[in-house]
Amino acid sequence: MLKLDTLISNVDRLLTLDPIQGGSDLGVLEDAAVGIVGEKVAWIGPTAQAPGAATIIEARGLLATPGLVDCHTHAVWAGSRASEWRRRLSGVPYAEILEQGGGILSTVAATRAASDEELLAGCVARLRAAASRGITTVEIKSGYGLDPAQERRCLRIARRAGEIVGVRVFTTFLGAHTIPPELRHDREAYVQQVIQEQLPAVLDVADFADVFIDRGAFTLDEGERILRAAQEAGLGVRVHAEQLSATGAASLAARLGALSADHLERLPPHAASELARAGTVAVLLPGACLYLNDPSPPVQALRDAEVPMAVATDLNPGSSPTGDLWACATLACVLMGLTIEEALVGITRNAGRALGRSDLGILRVGGPADLALYAPPPGDPVHEDALVQRLEGHRATLTLCEGRVLYGATDYSPT
Ligand SMILES: [Zn+2]
Q1: How far apart (Å, rounded) are the C-alpha atoms in residues 194 and 120?
Q2: Which one of 6, 105, 136, 291 has the lowest number of neighbouring Cβ atoms within 10 Å?
Q3: pTM above 0.70?
Q4: What domains are defined for the chain?
Q5: What is the pLDDT of residues 48-78, one digit of tens each?
Q6: How far is the CA of 166 from the centre of ligand 1 (A)?
Q7: What is the Å distance from ligand 1's center to 174 Cα?
């Protein structure tokens, strides 16, 4: 007879995100239990039939989800852009702020000047906040170092922060985020540096590579050269595509078989079918749409073409200063027209897929025991509709990653 280490018992509403296990695309089970052995899910089913366990966690009155997956962040940085935001609100154009060394370049300067300890502390704090929201997997990009040693340093710090907090971290090399001030006059020299010096320097600390292909960033041709070099070096690729202008970057992502094409605010609708054929995930970033007052990506075209859609925070100090993935799920519904189911699949199963991991963001026997429990907002039923509807900064009562407590208490009791 199966003996469990831990049983999460009497869950009012369990979203497994596995349609095979329960009703709807969310795989809903009611009055259910999840059994854990070691780092894995060992049993899922009705509480009444659950095997014995060494530890029982009572989850009456709570909703459970797989550990959430934030598949697009820039969570290693130093400095603040809050005062710059104040200036933008007063009407100063972003181009003028950039000319004065503000914007992304001010974050590059502050990041380069920061000590390892300072950068690590910032990233650890951001990952702890993520864990408190029920997030168990975070993708973190470099891109504020912009030279071989600094890019490597940021990726190492991202991994170290993941080890300290216990959140699963995937790292993405984004040396081609912008051109640093010292090479503004010679962009080709910078592209060469990314390919010939930065890429070899980060290979053992990066899981993926990414390029910001856009007006004012990198051209389609530069992006293709960098991404092909990364693929030849063995890295999976993803692309910041079609955010500020339509460049053809999404089609390139499809041609390269990229794991994800991210942003897509200016995606030409016809390119959706190319993403679908390639199996590339569309990562929607509603925080950036909100702060930049940008249009929504063509969600209906993505839906019609059956492109898998993920939703992420784009956490960064300027254009999307939030790590609140629940808020981004809400905004994806409000600003982009996603259904509640699409938003929830977007912050779980499809976000895992964007990282090449179909076992993340889903609760299934044999998969990692990543799970979060939530109490409903006061007065609301124990139901996902209430969590997605309300912009309340939801916190988990308990977050587990690979069976370990990341956040919260195992003895939550509703009052
Ligand atoms: Zn981004």
Answers
A1: 24
A2: 291
A3: yes
A4: 4-67+361-408 (2.30.40.10), 68-354 (3.20.20.140)
A5: 999 999 999 999 999 999 999 999 999 999 9
A6: 23
A7: 9
